[in-house]
């Protein structure tokens, strides 16, 4: 029976790819998810080491859409997300609007990638596989990866849930107009620094919007619910500073950001790790939730289509799954027109 179901490849196991894959699998499609990373989550990432962990990508997520609010409630019930109520400060410049400060903020528990791991449960996920190319023949789409060359499987549809510049590279040889649409999306970079401290740092806030110097955001990761291990803070640079230092060596970036942290009263960290997010956040939203080209059965989803937040990624994935469901026939048993 199962061999007659359409088989769909999803490239990217961030929130968008996972929400899309999960909805398709629950509808009855066969789904295989590929991700270049070691584990699902993408930009909802957590760095871990001996006795410490730190969310070094997304810091928290909000839930404005009713469908996403219901999903977050499911995550809370499953114990993989929780409310984070940091004591917030605003340092320098203009304070954010009061409404923004009173928004409910959620985090993954015990770490930011926990909701992604939960979504991934029951899905076929192939980690550490970087898709570089795809091609079509009479039996459907085939994928080529760095690790395995040309994959033997054929897919009835291929869905890209990767940052737009990466989607554009993959689509350029086959669908140049769609590649252009993706390449026009502007993504802002972000340098993120994890600061491990020897003892508790108590400046009177757990997180701060910073409006001066290199930094834009500062948070005591240890103040989030369910965290264990030593005292850890994260500092993230502004998009402008990150762009201006995009090719600066890690060590110099770390030195500048630690100096900014210390200028705000922070102690000298015992250890520092730095990460450059080339495509951290979308600078603007587009006019559609997802892109689906039924004639070739290729689709795109991701936060960048809707506005750049975790919630947008999840919603975009669902929107793409609905488009696929509406146009790729799902049938069980024989005969089945879409089965090979
Ligand atoms: C520093 C930072 C701070 C942020 N802060 C917040 C915040 O406070 N609140 C908020 O709501 N959002 C925040 N975000 C944004 C949020 O993380 C994203 O909106 C969301 O995680 C995007 O999900 P996605 O599935 O669209 O993409 P991603 O999470 O980027 O997932 C894409 C996946 O595709 C994989 N991939 C890429 N290319 C390939 C390939 N060729 N082959 C196979 N796999 C591939 C990647 O490994 C990745 O896992 C932040 C992001 C960053 C980086």
UniProtKB/TrEMBL annotation:
InterPro entries: Amino_oxidase, FAD/NAD-bd_sf. Coiled coil: none annotated. It comes from the Bacteria. This is FAD-dependent oxidoreductase. It comes from Duganella aceris. Residues 112-323 form the Amine oxidase domain.
